[in-house]
Amino acid sequence: MNIFEANKTNMKQNFINISKIVEQFGNLEDVKEVLDFFLTEIPESLENLKMALKNENWEKLYQYAHFLKGSCQSMAVEKCAVFLESLGNEAKKNQNITKMQTLIEQIIFELDNASQEIQHFLAKNK
Hints:
Elements: H1 3-8, H2 18-25, H3 28-54, H4 58-74, H5 78-93, H6 97-124
């Protein structure tokens, strides 16, 4: 089974566009490696966002959101990247904590679901 056939056999991706990653890397082993790395990065990144908000450290919140946005764009978690951009913009203005909390909750939801899809993809393509 080639990489494109392997991707077609996976469940419909709603939170991550694995087809884009497959097209970008073209090699199943490379795709699996970057997806696995992304999975390991998510928990720490989310914790950093939550702590920066809790500490009202707007500069750090902006930096963490910007970093994670780039990762999400690279991994085709597109909706989450949009939320992270909004979070970064709010952090620059450092004024609406409630909106930032809501954005972080949306980001967590998106990344939790993207993680499940990645795990499913990785399990089917061992």
